[in-house]
Write a structure and sequence with these properties.
mainly beta; 2 domains; 12-stranded antiparallel β-barrel
């Protein structure tokens, strides 16, 4: 008899074990009906019935786990909602695309100077400077127009445009090609154009980019169609210094100095100097003071070798 009872309880335990395992597997694979047991003491137990006998009920509960309840303690029961496995929520961070760097920058300048007293003077200035930069390529387009009269006599009528392409070959060194064209009625140049390649190097560049100094060496071909019916062709070597400097966070300067040595006559040369001093008035509006000087040892007959001008203008950047 004792041996029979031992086999009985062992078989019962094995059946209970497989019932629990089977119930857990079923609950993990598909929804299972849940039941709400109302007990005699007023408690409620929600879960899924694993095994039920005449004397006790074995329930698996999401909060209490596996519990056994005597049948006499159950007052009533009701069906609940199907029990679903608790899903795992994985928060995927929202990926935002970084802002594209600004490729184009345009500066526009407008100036006007009027003077009325015993005599009068009028001077107008317009200029556009556009740059494009991407990776190893930089393109710079520059256009200026200046017109003025003093005592009714033409004192300025000049238009110049240029294009400069820079191609980086290392962190410091780059190649460039410079081309330009225009006219200057006061200096009696009906039309001139020039073109020339070369190489440049970054001499100094501060960590915050507030001070940048570049030096260039190259070749220049220039042809002038003059109003005295002459045509002058010049082959020159070009040495240039380009410096930009932000002073105190607001005031900034940009200077371009170009020296052209005549390769046909070493006693002759041309010199160009332009400095712009800018002070911001508003976010995109600045007050600019521009000083330029051009010196040519071979001007048109009757025209001064030196041409120096100082102008002021409002600048607009976008």
């Amino acid at each position: 008899m004792k041996r029979f009872l031992n086999h009985y309880f062992s078989l019962r335990s094995l059946v209970l074990f497989f019932a629990v395992v089977s119930g857990a597997c079923l609950s993990a694979e598909e929804p299972s009906p849940s039941i709400i047991l109302h007990l005699q003491n007023g408690d409620r137990i929600t879960g899924m019935i694993i095994v039920e006998t005449a004397t006790e009920i074995t329930v698996t509960s999401p909060t209490l786990g596996l519990i056994k309840i005597p049948t006499l303690q159950v007052k009533s029961r009701e069906l609940g909602q199907p029990t679903l496995p608790t899903p795992t929520v994985v928060m995927i961070p929202k990926q935002t695309r970084p802002d594209e760097p600004k490729r184009w920058t345009t500066d526009m300048q407008f100036g006007m100077s009027l003077k009325y007293s015993t005599g009068y003077a009028q001077d107008y200035l317009a200029g556009v400077h556009t740059t494009y930069a991407k990776d190893w390529l930089r393109e710079s387009l520059h256009y200026t127009f200046n017109y003025g009269k003093t005592e009714g006599i033409l004192s300025a009528n000049r238009m110049m445009g240029s294009s400069k392409t820079d191609i980086d070959i290392s962190q410091r060194w780059y190649l460039y090609n410079l081309a330009g064209a225009g006219y200057d009625e006061v200096r009696r140049i009906g039309l001139q154009y020039e073109i020339g390649p070369g190489a440049g190097v970054m001499v100094v560049k501060s960590l915050d980019n507030n001070f940048v100094w570049r030096s260039e060496l190259g070749f220049s071909y220039q042809e002038q169609f003059r109003n005295d019916d002459t045509d002058q062709i010049t082959y020159s070597g070009r040495i240039a210094q380009l410096i930009s400097w932000k002073i105190g966070g607001k005031l900034s300067t940009e200077t371009t100095l170009e020296f052209f040595q005549n390769l046909q006559s070493f006693g002759d040369y041309r010199l160009r100097l332009e400095t712009t001093l800018s002070y911001p008035l508003l976010r995109n509006i600045s007050l600019n003071l521009i000083a330029s000087d051009q010196y040519d040892t071979l001007p048109v007959v009757g025209i001064s070798r030196n041409d120096f001008q100082v102008r002021s203008a409002l600048g607009l950047r976008f």
